[in-house]
Design brief:
By secondary structure, this protein is an alpha/beta fold. It is built from twelve helices and twelve strands. Keywords: Cell shape, Cell wall biogenesis/degradation, Isomerase, Peptidoglycan synthesis.
Amino acid sequence: MAVGIFDSGLGGLTVLDAVTKRLPDVPFVYFGDNAHAPYGVRDADDVYALTTAAVERMFGAGCDLVILACNTASAAALRRMQESWIPHDKRVLGVFVPLIEALTERSWGDNSPPREVEVKHVALFATPATVASRAFQRELAFRAIGVDVEAQACGGVVDAIEDGDMILAEALVRSHVDALKRKMPDPQAAILGCTHYPIMHDAFQVALGEDVSVYSQANLVAESLADYLERHPKMVGAGTESKFLTTGDVRKVSDRATQFLRRQITFEAA
């Protein structure tokens, strides 16, 4: 009865931590494609090929439901996977949906016409690939009108976090926020559109100012997953064991993940 959590690297551990706290009785299989991280600088075909290979591995580990805890994969690969690749008895979900539900205050199943929402000026911080896809803006436009979204590609932040260089990551956050504010001086809300970025939540908040509402994904995804499994209990797969898989160096990834979650994490080779 396992559920899969996929990310290109370690950022998805922020989602894993939240969902395990929300759903303590559900085993989770985490897959980090660390050998090919970051995805944010890859083209869409490359992201699609890597994502489908990882999801196939999680299907094999007993996961009928996989969460793409990677915004780049959600933006560049998910729609294509849903249209032509995912078996009829499996499900793959992305991380944009809970964010847009929170921002627009309407459920994903609400198919009424787009309407005005309270927040009019939104800053989106994401990887270059996510920004280039415009997937967030496209999904938001189906549900809300009159929202100005200014996107900022945050090059280097994921690499710095993966390398454990938080001083560099914080400096890059300040630089990217400054660049965003030159384009949108007074955002009302900010979307941290990468699952690595919640680790830098405080740095984003300080750089943006206390009046800006900062949305990060981990807790929103956890609540959305709990609701989904309540409505679709059969989508909890056959797997019974929690495990951590990586395409990268097992010892290095295990050590870094242990630092991330502040508890012992042991990966095995995917």
